[in-house]
Model the fold of this input.
Amino acid sequence: MPFHVNPSSCDMPLSQSAIEATKIPYRLLCTQAAVGFALAMSISFIGIDKSYAAEHVINMTAEETADDGFGNKLLAYRMISHTVDGLDVTDRYSSDATIPGPIIELTEGDKVKLTLFNAIDSGYPVSGVSKQVSVHVHGVHYKILSDGTLKVINRIQDEGAGEGPENTFVSYEYEWDVAPGTAGTWAYHDHNYDNHNGSEHKGLFGAIIVNPAANPKPHNAFKYSKEYVLYLGDDAFWGVEIDSATKKQSKHGANPTLNAPKNTDVRFHLIALGTDLHQFTLNGYKWIDPGTPKLISQIAIGPLEKHVFYVRAKNSTQYVDNNFSNKLMGMKGNFIVD
Done:
């Protein structure tokens, strides 16, 4: 049987037989016990606070939305309902299908059940063989049946809602484990519709923001007034603006104009989509490159890379992709400081 020492009793003498039974010098034994006790206490203070763990129940659709201005129909996700431990928070999202899709805010320790319904018109043109639609998420943990891919990839079954060789249901349920270590900003997107790569390029993409459990509400702690999620596509920014006080999401669409109150801190979440490399610049601003002490004025970002930073809103300006070809295509938007 292992011999356990209470560090509070290390000043009390032990019998020689007890010391010999451990085969460890008594002083070392006490030191190890004290270190273990201190470590346990520190973990209890700085570890994952289970009181913040929440159960999210989410229902979304994938459906047709307005065309892209060139007569091509697009697809988009729409939030039907979202509850957190039974509390309905659906009003933070648009009631319409949007590009980008809903931004889902989570905290390390949370559990998510997300049901996706296929509401895409059966006549929607599709060049491949699959009319299933799915949600494939990055960053958080899940079992293989929640991968949101076709059998050709996962080797088990088609994991989407709609028509397919093995799945003709109009809905599919995914379960995510927002485990410790998953904090960050992560994309989710379709991986099934049309072909095994999905229809992300037609508008089926969104993001999750996972807050660290040690600081579950950083936008409150740091008093961010706004958060912006910008996806860098091959020919446009696609964005969402989030009011941190109400968590209302707005300004969906291509190259959106973003607003901020003067002298408030705002946070940008950049996610690169498509195949291009980008040079993101917020003209006239510098920010700390996360994980370093360096101030930078632009960031190189490639496919599925991400970059999160904050600035203090001082002056109105533009955000721009300074990659030559993307700049020529008009990849820029206004940042208006009120």
The two ends are 69 Å apart (CA to CA). The domain at 50-211 is CATH 2.60.40.420 (Immunoglobulin-like). Helices lie at 16-22, 26-46, 151-154, 218-221, 324-328.
